[in-house]
Amino acid sequence: ILFLIRNPKDVATSFFYFCNVMSPLPSYDTWDDFFVAFMNKKMPWGCYFEYHSKWNKYAADENIMIISYEELKENPALGVKNIAAFFGIPLTEKELQGVVDRSSFQSMKKNSQKTHGTFGNVFFRKGGISDWKNHFNEDQNKKMDKAYEECLGGTILGTKLKYDVYCKA
Asked: Pfam families this protein is in (predicted)?
């Protein structure tokens, strides 16, 4: 099992935009309204922290590889190489580079209409990291930090998230 994780602040930011363009999902007039719903476990697919807390029980299992979105953004080639090794898939350097090129955000966004049909424009917004800094106010930042610490601080998944690197103001 490949378990891809992403820091909760960027997850919230991304999901805010996703909800506001996907008509079946609840939309939010403001970021503040969304943040309250996110922190009060009122999201269509459940609570980020509860989901990760449940998965943390399996984080040390040998058949599970945990990798973060941020890790893949920092070094896509190493991420692909590690994923291939985990699944026992040998890759030549040319194959590795082909996977890296085709799985880049820019490439996936460019091909999104072919790969995702009419939803292509919905699934690919920015593809970066740290956009949360443009949305969170100081109080929201403190609330998210507290929730992280209570649910994931000191856990295997929490360590893998590198919260101090990607989520501290």
From this structure: Sulfotransfer_1
